[in-house]
Specification:
The chain is an alpha/beta fold. The chain has one domain (30-221): P-loop containing nucleotide triphosphate hydrolases (Rossmann fold), CATH 3.40.50.300. The protein is built from 8 helices and 7 strands. A 7-stranded parallel sheet has the order 3-2-4-1-5-6-7, sandwiched between helices. The protein is globular, with a radius of gyration of 18 Å.
């Protein structure tokens, strides 16, 4: 009987993706373009947060958006209505973006003329956390209705992100959500994560969010090596 050769497909794919992701970061450094990977579960407010960000930063930064969805173009249509560059990646069943997919989006959107590119990853707290997209920073949204126990269920997502946006805080009166318990759980996984509280409905906390993002772009432009993803 011939020897059976075992190939770890997942590890091979992840290794190739990480190598391409680093090449993407080098390319973006050369064009002076900062890229943020925004992740969350469906319905937590990614598109709403992106629209707020566009309105708050468009006077100071040239912005482009890479939208990812399994089937629709609904979110990219909302972004396009704001008058910024946007490209839609329809993943056709894939539950995440990786560096290969993002590279295709960047080819279309043309990062050379942009200061900031935001990736709206596929709505999912599992797969997107496993793949390096080539972004300079990772951020995630957790909405109040989802509950404070999510770090226990999806630890990798909370481990790889530089910022955690707690969205829909206007709904606190409706849902039982323990901020202290959440923060304790998150800090065990990721002591340095930056936690912000926002409401895309009322605008509360948006200045803090855009202030954090402005600071990341400033550090990136100064060439500080702290501006690398986890």
């Amino acid at each position: 009987m011939d020897e059976i050769r075992l190939i770890e497909v997942k590890e091979g794919i992840l290794s190739e993706s990480r190598a391409l992701a680093e090449r993407l970061r080098e390319k973006l450094r050369s064009t002076g373009t900062f890229m943020l990977n925004l992740m969350s579960s469906p319905g937590s407010g990614k598109t709403s947060l992106i629209l707020w960000t566009i309105d708050a930063l468009r006077a100071d930064f040239r912005i482009g958006i890479i939208e990812a969805d399994i089937a629709s173009t609904v979110d990219s249509e909302k972004v396009a209505a704001r008058g910024v560059k946007v490209v839609q990646l329809r993943t056709g069943g894939f539950c995440h973006l990786d560096a290969t997919m993002v590279a295709q989006g960047l080819e279309v959107i043309g990062p050379q003329g942009l200061d900031l590119v935001i990736i709206e990853n596929v709505g999912n707290l599992v797969c997107p956390a496993e793949f390096d997209t080539g972004a300079n920073k990772n951020a995630m949204i957790l909405s109040i209705p989802e509950g404070d126990d999510k770090p226990l269920k999806y630890p990798l997502m909370f481990s790889v992100c530089d910022a955690l946006v707690l969205n829909k805080i206007d709904a606190l009166g409706v849902f039982d959500f323990d901020f202290q318990a959440l923060e304790q759980r998150v800090r065990v996984l990721n002591p340095g994560i930056h936690i912000l509280k926002t409401s895309c409905k009322t605008g509360e906390g948006m200045d803090a969010w855009t202030g954090w993002l402005r600071e990341q772009i400033r550090v990136f432009r100064q060439g500080d090596n702290r501006c690398e993803p986890h």
